[in-house]
Every structure is written in structure tokens, then in C-alpha cells.
Amino acid sequence: MYNKEPRSIITDGDRAMRKAIRLVLPNTDHRLCTWHIERNAAKYLHHSMLPGFRRLIYTRGTPETFESRWQSFLKQHINTGKRRRRRKHRRWLTKMYVIRRLWAASYLKNKYFLGAKSNQRSESLNSRLQKHLDRKMTLYDMVDHYFHCLSRIRRNESQLDCEASQSIPVATTEHQVLETSAAKCFTPSNFYLVQKEIERAGMYDTVEILETELSTKYIIAARDGRKVFEVDCDDEETLANVSCSCLKFECEGIPCCHIMVVLIRLGVAMPQCCVLNRWTLNSKSVSGTDTSDHVRSMKGTRLNELYNLAKPVFEEASCSIDDFLRWKQILQHERNEKRKRDGIDGECSHAEDHENNVEVEAEQINVQDPETVQGKGAPKRMKGFLEKPAKRRCSQCKAIDHDIRTCPKIKRRR
């Protein structure tokens, strides 16, 4: 990843992974996969406790509200199930309470996960790869199968890119200015999410407007009066920055319905501050230099690293004319000096680069196929976490309460 830390990571409940992420990537937002949590909940908890525990996972709120809900959940289900099951419930719930900051929505409210709650994307690719894998398959066949799966994903992505560039979604709400501007900048799948937020804006009203010298604060409340949110606008003319107290845009990258209420009130188009570049139609064209031809070379690696280091510096320099002129002069000076050096000892540098490339190509490792190991029995089928175990039946009369050794029909024959 060219020495860049990821913004967020979703894993299962492995302790070694949690410890490694905490030590190596302390600035990365980490959460546990909700699919694995629900699977373990169905394994360790009574079936009557599952709906209440799911509400603890997905219901947003403050940490204080989560603590109160947790205590009421324990009081309600403290005597659920048999005595042995109760001990099992308490041990697992105690362990989950210790790591509640990694799975409860109340503690993950301010984290940056773009709406993702599970590692379903990687699991779907794993299932696709494992569908046609065989223990007798050679390493070459496995790599060929891997690239075949990737080609299918890339083909679908190219088809969606073509459809997005050649079509515009239809506006369905009465706020044509806001919806049309969103359709021109967002991809279709993300536009439909924005469209839902525009439709939900009809459920809220502007209660109060507080103006200051630097910004304007809008108090947005639901029509039933239960929830109140605050939307801050730095400048109503340019809309340089718009933020909401629900933090939906900061966490999921999609502007919330409370911001839509303010934009509809002002009668403006979708501002640039409410659009993430990664959700736009031209995200690939402005994502940086095209390094597809150099991705397997040392040149491409160095080029990407230099680009990632220079991009934030140049973005800040473009905001000021003095910084812009200073960096422009520095780059022009360095380019002229390099041309002078290339003119003097260009032949030597060319020979050195050729030798380095030969050394890199020579340092290739020949990977052989692994040794074939005799399998131990037939592979077991993976059962779903909600699938009940099959009850054992008598092979003679197909009854459940006994087996063939104690079958009454056999005893009668004897």
C-alpha cells in the first residue's frame, strides 16, 4: 500500500489480529465483523436472547445509552435457559462486553467505515476461489483459476463503468435542482443512496436558525419531535463546509437527510464539500497517475511512492499563490539541474540503470508446486450458524427416540 496506513479494518474476533492492529496500526479504525458476531451469538446464547443482542449491535446512540440497554438486557435474560447454559451465556457475554468498543454501534458512531459492517466482500471472493479448488490442483492451475475469478470481477466493473458514463439516473422527487446535480456527479449506485436521503428530508423541519459571524447553525428536528440535529454551514453563498451532528457523512461518506433539509431550504445544487471523490464518476481519472503498465516494475513502485509523498504538499501549495510560485521555481530548478547532469554523465547513469534492472530480473525465485499430502477422510460440509443439527434416526423404522440396537420391531421378530 506504498507505506500508507488504512483508514479502517474489519476482521473476525481473532486475538492475535486485534493485538497486531493495535500495536502496528494505532491510528486505524478497527471493528469486528457483525456476521461472525451473530454466528457466535447463535452458538453461545439462547434463541430468545438473539433479537435483544442484535439491537445492541446495530442500534446507534451514546455510550451511556448502550450501558443502560446492556444492563436491562442482562436483567431480562439472566434466568434464560438451563443452569449449564446460563454459565455459558455469562462467560460469552462478559467477554463481549470487554471488547464492546469493537462491535457496538454506539461506540463506532464516529469511526470511518463507509457503511461497511462485515468483511463480506473478501468472504465472497474466498468462496468463489474455493468453489473449484482441489487438493490435487497444481500451483500453476490455482494461480490461473485466481486470475480467472479476477477477470470476471474486472469485467463486471468495466460494464458498470460503461453504463454509468452513458446514462443519468431519473429524478423522482420534487427537488429537481438538488437531485439533478447529484445525478451528474455520483455513480448510479451511490446516487440512489443520496436519493433516499433526499426523500427522507421530508420527515424533518427547520426549527431554529442561529447566525454568527463565521457560520450559520440550523436546528433540524423530526416531525414527531423525538430527535434533534444541528447542521453547521460556514458560508451560505459558497457552502465551503457543511456538517451535521449525526456524523453520517464523516462515517459513511453520504450526506445525511438533515443536510438535505438545509440544501433544499437554500435552493442550491449539491455542494462540493458533500461529495467524496471516491463516489464520483471521474474518480478513476483523477485518482493519480496510471501505473497499470508499471505495476510489476520497480519504476512503478518508486513513482507511486513519490506521488503519494508529493500530493498533499502540492494540494496545500495550490491554495496560496506564494507557495505555488515557490514550489514551481524549485521544481523548475531541479529539472534544469537534472538535464545538466544527464548531459554530462548520461552514458554512465544509463549503464548503471541497465545493470540494476538486470540484477532485479536475475533475483527471481523459482516457486515449485507443494508436495501432495494424503487427505484424512472426506471433507466436512460447512453448516450455517442458524442451521439446527440433524437428529439421529433409527435405520430400521426411522424413529427418533431410539436406534437400531433398541428398535422394538427387531425385538418382536426375535
From TrEMBL:
Residues annotated as domain SWIM-type: 229-267
Keyword line: Metal-binding, Nucleus, Zinc, Zinc-finger
Compartments, as annotated in UniProt: Nucleus
GO cellular component, one term: nucleus
Region described as Disordered: 365-385
Major site of localization recorded for this protein: nucleus
Claim: Cell wall biogenesis/degradation is one of the keywords in the record: no
GO MF term list: zinc ion binding
Protein family membership: Belongs to the FHY3/FAR1 family.
PANTHER family reported for this sequence: OS02G0262500 PROTEIN, PROTEIN FAR1-RELATED SEQUENCE 10-RELATED
Function summary: Putative transcription activator involved in regulating light control of development.
Protein name: Protein FAR1-RELATED SEQUENCE
